[in-house]
């Protein structure tokens, strides 16, 4: 996970960080586009 890779470096700068939940990142290098959006595994209850 990216959070595990960068959180120590962020905290060494004196900043606080925490992971708020899951999400998805879609990287399209051909279009030079990155889309970041939320994602939940919780089933919907109606």
From TrEMBL:
This is Uncharacterized protein. The keyword ATP-binding does not apply. Keywords: Differentiation, Sexual differentiation. It comes from the Eukaryota. It comes from Scyliorhinus torazame. Belongs to the janus family. Transmembrane segments: none annotated. InterPro entries: Janus, Janus_sf. One of its GO terms (biological process) is sex differentiation. JanA and janB regulate somatic sex differentiation.
């Amino acid at each position: 996970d990216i959070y595990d890779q960068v959180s120590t470096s962020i905290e060494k700068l004196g900043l606080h960080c925490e992971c708020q939940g899951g999400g998805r990142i879609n990287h399209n290098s051909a279009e030079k586009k990155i889309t970041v959006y939320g994602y939940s595994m919780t089933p919907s209850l109606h």
